[in-house]
Write a structure and sequence with these properties.
- Helix content is 24%, strand content 25%.
- The protein has helices at 42-52, 64-71, 86-97, 170-180, 182-190, 231-248, 264-268, 305-314, 349-362; strands at 6-8, 15-17, 28-30, 32-36, 75-78, 105-106, 118-120, 123-125, 135-138, 150-157, 161-162, 165-169, 193-199, 271-274, 280-286, 289-291, 298-300, 322-324, 330-332, 337-338, 345-346, 364-366, 373-377, 381-385, 388-389, 393-400.
- The strands form seven sheets. Strands 1, 4, 5, 6, 7, 8, 10, 23 and 26 form a nine-stranded mixed beta sheet that branches. The protein has a five-stranded antiparallel beta sheet with strand order 14-15-13-20-21. A four-stranded antiparallel beta sheet has the order 9-24-12-22.
- The longest helix is centred in the middle third of the chain and has 18 residues, at 231-248.
């Protein structure tokens, strides 16, 4: 599927598959790679992008851009764009967001532990983890009930070597795992997934997390409001925002924990622990399968790949999940868990290995060039980051589309 201006091109990193393997569905090329029909300046490119985005005349949420995403597994790689700076990217995003009641709106971050530095309006840095660190496949902020509908990435500086962004279609991933490890898929919905999220008291650079606890994007006050002055007041304020976040996922204070018709993650909710140094660890319990809003099919929705990889590297599948570093200090690598009412339970390693195998089998590793953008439907695709050498500068933007959400599948 293409438009009169945007032309599809074939690349060596595209993969072809059916969402439902063995069905009469057509195969799709993933991702869709588009180039402009002619070389244009930034202003002209923005106008062309705006033509395929949401329009005031749209009768539903399926703009041309939305249809292109659905027809190609939820990821579009646009190449050959006249974008050089974060401000250029920001300007393009205005066109990409569209107009009318189905237009995208900037995502509001809540409880974010990843340090992202503002670069321009609606533009942030990507994860600051070291270049040698593999960031595994994940739906953006799947650890939380507050996650974006769309993620848009922009390449300002391509890597010297490596550094591809890998994408995996999670509807196809669900189909494969449902057939081969149905117990895993059932556990993701009826029990749900557990994520231990560390929050630093103050900002820390150069690590995978590092966002300051009291920032607005984490658990601090909104719209420039002041924190309470006392330590007790600050902690109560943070805890109130954690509770509000848990409520977004369906938990509430008076929930009946004995109601087995509800999934475990919803009955148990969130818990947290304050550390002696003022840092905070929040345990999120959330759904691991969601209904895609336009495909109307179930989709894997998780952020377990890095946790699985770390547990394999350090052999920490058994409690207490600790290991020794080369300098003798103790590290911890908690493997993925299902939620439990009395105690959360480690997901069987063989199930996680099967997920990892299919992520590798279905993935496309996208090669970056200067000025490229990557549009990802967060409900249809996971993304990952391979290690790299040299310079690499990728920026990110996060968006929601009103009325378009992926409801948890609970059984």
């Amino acid at each position: 599927m293409s438009t009169s201006f945007w032309h599809p091109v074939k690349t060596d990193y595209q993969v072809s598959f059916q969402i439902t393997e063995g069905s009469d569905e057509p195969s799709m090329d993933f991702p869709l790679v588009l180039e402009p029909g002619e070389k244009l300046n930034k202003e002209d490119i923005i106008q062309e992008v705006a033509k395929i985005a949401a329009q005031p005349s749209d009768m539903d949420e399926r703009s041309t851009l939305r249809k292109l995403l659905d027809a190609n597994g939820g990821v579009i790689h646009m190449k050959g764009l006249a974008l050089k700076t974060a401000d250029d990217f920001s300007d393009l995003l205005d066109g990409l967001a569209g107009q009318g009641k189905h237009a995208w709106v900037p995502h509001e971050h809540i409880g974010m532990e990843v340090l992202r530095r503002p670069q321009a309006r609606n533009v942030l840095t990507t994860n600051e983890g070291p270049p040698s660190h593999f960031i595994g496949w994940h739906n953006e902020y799947a650890v939380s009930p507050a996650h974006p509908t769309y993620l848009v990435l922009f390449c300002q500086t391509p890597p010297g070597s490596g550094g591809e962004t890998s994408v995996v279609n999670t509807l196809a991933l669900y189909d494969r795992l449902k057939k081969e490890v149905p117990g895993f898929v059932e556990g993701c919905s009826t029990k749900g997934l557990v994520y231990q999220i560390p929050h630093n008291l103050t900002q820390v650079s150069g690590i995978v997390g590092g966002n300051g606890l009291f920032k607005e994007s984490a658990f601090g006050p909104k719209n420039g409001a002041k924190l309470p002055e006392t330590e007790e007041g600050k902690r109560k304020f943070v805890e109130s925002r954690i509770i509000d976040l848990a409520k977004r996922g369906g938990w509430h204070e008076n929930i009946d924990q004995s109601d087995e018709s509800l999934p475990v993650w919803q009955r148990k909710g969130f818990t947290w622990t304050w550390l002696d140094n003022g840092d905070l660890e929040v345990v999120h319990r959330v759904a691991g399968v969601r209904q895609h809003p336009t495909f109307k099919k179930p989709s894997i929705f998780n952020a377990m790949s890095t946790r699985f990889t770390n547990a394999v590297v350090h052999d920490t599948f058994e409690p207490p999940h600790t290991y020794k570093n080369e300098d003798g200090s103790e590290g911890i690598a908690v493997p993925p868990h299902f939620a439990g009412m009395e105690k959360d339970e480690v997901i069987p390693r063989k199930w996680l290995e099967k997920m990892d195998q299919w992520q590798h089998a279905l993935e496309s590793s996208i090669k970056w060039d200067h000025g490229d953008i990557l549009i990802i439907d967060n409900y249809a695709a996971q993304h990952a980051r391979w290690a790299w050498e040299g310079d690499r500068k990728i920026q990110a933007s996060f968006w929601d589309q009103p009325g378009l959400a992926a409801a948890p599948i609970m059984g």
